[in-house]
Design goal:
The chain is mostly helical. Helix content is 56%, strand content 8%. The strands form two sheets. Strands 1-2 form a two-stranded antiparallel ribbon. Strands 3-4 form a two-stranded antiparallel sheet. It is rod-shaped. The termini are far apart.
Length: 131
């Protein structure tokens, strides 16, 4: 292909060019010449070369579940605010995923707040009402 002095041991599976060992690019079970690799990468056709995006859903869901153990009436409002921000980020960029997990995280955060409020404040209110 590019190295005339080298023996071609492979054929590009996309264009049929002969490829020496130096020029060969093996990716996703394909053997490609440099030109075809560059073209497929620029077109976004190669899954393994795509840029991965931050998954807001995993972060929000993890934090919301953690809030059940860490005073959710303090942490859950922060997590809900972060989740709203995450939803706006997901809406701006369709490549970002995790919308369902973010919404689930909001629900868990609300449940966490209710749980911690019931543990701390309802007994306090009952004690105050008895006096």
């Amino acid at each position: 292909y590019l190295h005339a002095e080298n023996k071609a041991h492979h054929i590009c599976e996309r264009c049929g060019s002969f490829i020496c060992e130096i020029c060969l690019t093996e990716i996703e079970t394909k053997k490609l010449c440099p030109r075809c690799f560059d073209r497929l990468e620029n077109d976004g056709a190669l899954q393994t070369t795509k840029t991965s995006y931050f998954n807001w859903g995993r972060l929000i869901l993890s934090l919301s579940l953690l809030s059940f153990f860490c005073y959710g009436f303090f942490t859950a409002p922060f997590i809900i605010g972060l989740a709203v921000y995450a939803l706006f980020q997901i809406k701006k960029d369709p490549e970002k995923r995790g919308k369902a997990s973010v919404i689930t995280g909001i629900i868990f955060s609300i449940l966490s707040m209710i749980f911690w409020i019931s543990i701390f404040f309802i007994p306090l209110i009952i004690r105050m009402a008895k006096h």
